[in-house]
Amino acid sequence: MAKKLSAGSMASLIGAAALIFASIKFPWWGMKFFAPQYPEGLDIIVYPSTLDGDIDIVNGLNHYIGMAEFSNESFPELQYLPGLIIGLAVIFIIIALLRRKSLLFVPVGLLVVGGALGIYDMNRWLTKFGTELDPKAPIELEPFVPPIIGENILANFVTHSYFTTGSFLLGAAFLLTLLPFWLERRK
Amino acid sequence: MKKWVPAASGLLAGFMAATVFFADFSTGPKGTASNDNNANKSNAEKVYVPYGELDEYYMLSSGGHSGQLFVYGLPSMRKIRTVPVFSPDPATGYGFDTKTKEMLGGYTWGDFHHPAISETNGEYDGKFVFANDVANNRIGVVDLSNFHTADIMEMPNMGGPHAGTFVTQNTEYIVMPTRFSVPIGKEYAPLDEFEEKYKGVVSMVTFDQEKKKLDMSYQIMLPPWSYDLSDAGKKVSGDWIVMTTYNTEFATTNNEINASQNDRDYIVLLNWKELEKKVAAGEYEEVNGAKMIDPRKHKGSIYAVPVAKSPHGVDVTPDGTRFIASGKLAPLMTVFSFEKAFEAIKSGDFETEKFGIPVLPYDKIVEREVDPPGALGPLHTQFDDRGNAYNTMFISSEIVKWKIDTGEILDRTPVHYSPGHSTATEGDTASPDGKWIVSLNKIAKDNFLSVGPSHPESMELIDISGDKMSLTYTAPVDPEPHYAQTIHRDKIKTIKIYEKDEKREHSVWKQEDTRIERKGNEVHVYGIAMRSKFVFDAKAKRPDEIKVNQGDKVIIHLTNIDLDQDITHGFGIMDHDLNYEVQPGQTSTIEFTAEKAGTFPIYCTNFCSALHQEMSGYLLVEPK
């Protein structure tokens, strides 16, 4: 039984690396807020390296409930996340080039662990922002934790949080890292 | 019981039932009123713009001596906005903040007559609208990206720019002819010297669209006639301007009689392209800061066309081949041919000369006279997309539709009452839409709930899309509309907020950068407004306090850092006659001298949020 990975498996891993790399340029997660005064909706869009959308407007509104300000500085992850992603893609390429079957578990493991950590981290932030409200805020509110995915109602706002393009690319990369296990099944 | 009783009662019951179910209880034959009622139902549907939908046209209407621009939506006729141009407006702080106060130049009113939308190739381009102030010899321009007045310029040597504003087909010039002739520089001269000393001057104004700045290019010196209205040519006639005149009699008193004596007055034809060349070649005199050219000394640039006495409006047809004059005192419309006029000019075929101006032979350039029976007081002409003209009839209170090519009268509809101008959708362009015309009526006796002796003026919406005109809706209006232009909504591109320009002079974008600086006895405040607070000095114990000494000059720069649609903040200081606004992303400045010692609340005057009421601060003026 050949120890080397097939060309198909290599291609699959390199493809996964490419998708991971590409995801840096796309938003990963977002939140959209609707209220009677904002029928067009307000956006928070999270890229691995930056926040986008109506951040200033959302901050302006959040000060009424005493929520801390969102900014690129308030999330240190945004500083090193692109580096981590590039590192991850490089590891995938190295494994593909090494062509060792036993290393196939590394990409899957990294993605599973990375994904779990990412979701844990997001939940940590959502909890922090939603529960550590300024007690002197003009509007007093019960602490709340917006969901990572799904709908939530807060005062006059209906929020929808969702994963988007970048996350889907990561999902596709995950599938590509699983593909070699099937390709190599008879060897 | 007799046998006939059940039979008779049966018959009776039968008739009763038949009557109840089938009889027509209406009294007499149906009149037209009930038909009108049906018509009104469909009219209601025509003007109804349901929630979530927008009007199809902007109607930019002059506000007359209110000095304002009224913005209406068509077909709903809903008033959307009042834009202050020549008058201060406490609601928006126009004329109170430093920039607009300077722009108004100390005047508190102006007489806004004829709005003219900027044009490209003879089509409204929706970028700017120009306006004349007949009272104070000014021209104003409103930026249609934000509906704010962008610039105002006072013009020398003029006596009321009534016969404007009209733009040449690519907005090369905004033309403003004088209504009341005056001596140059308004110097003293007895009225006995009217003919020699008084002049009717035409201003040729340019507008720099980038810098949003008006400039006087040159002025044209003409005889002291009264120039009533004007229009610019299009296409073949693109280099020309036409103007009506009255008082060719040179009357100086009781003009009602004395300026109405001559059987013929003149339409003046000016070639602005020729004059432009002459001015560029230095053939002008410097008069009170303006380059003044006398076209009578420069052959080829001015001609006069005789026209039935005291004409009012003159309008160029959409294709630019003809101009139509309406006789205020002679009840007919005269169609003149530009091509025939050009031929006469080319062959030097002149009837006579008046005041050094060659007069073209009336008979050779007139195409036809149109005289609808009983129609009196024709004033202005508008156009549709099917070769028809629409004339307002001031005295007989109607609009007459007629075919330009044949003069055939196609339709007439009464209006209520005494229409001055009218505005058709895209009506002054090279391609009118032919959907609606609005009659701008001077009188509206008994049409609306009474508000005392002064009745509102009115505007009537008429559907002109079919063969017959159909009076559709009427709306009252504040005094007093003169003219309007109606432009398709797609041509106007408004901004939603002002761009965050960190380099803008006096702007502050972060709370921590706010500060109050003292320079001698001047106090400069660099503050921000945001929901729901003012911050004048972030490092102070109370960031929303402005403390000055009695007699200090106070300059407050305020930036609205809420870059959110529709979040405008106001800034009013109690007992100081001061209020101004800052729109999202805007920086505005006011200046005043703190003459009164004391404690004066400051508050947000433009409703901004749930905590608007709390958006306040204090001006403390320490006594000397």
TrEMBL record, chain A:
The chain crosses the membrane at residues 80-98, 103-120, 162-183. Keywords: Membrane, Transmembrane, Transmembrane helix. The keyword Transmembrane applies. It comes from the Bacteria. This is Uncharacterized protein. It comes from Mesobacillus jeotgali. The lineage of its organism: Bacteria, Bacillati, Bacillota, Bacilli, Bacillales.
From TrEMBL, chain B:
Pfam families: Cupredoxin_1, nos_propeller. PROSITE patterns: COX2_CUA. Its EC number is 1.7.2.4. Residues 1-22 form the signal peptide. It comes from the Bacteria. It is found in: Periplasm. Residues 520-624 form the Cytochrome oxidase subunit II copper A binding domain. Its main location: periplasm. One of its GO terms (molecular function) is nitrous-oxide reductase activity. Keywords: Copper, Metal-binding, Oxidoreductase, Periplasm, Signal. This is Sec-dependent nitrous-oxide reductase. The gene is nosZ.
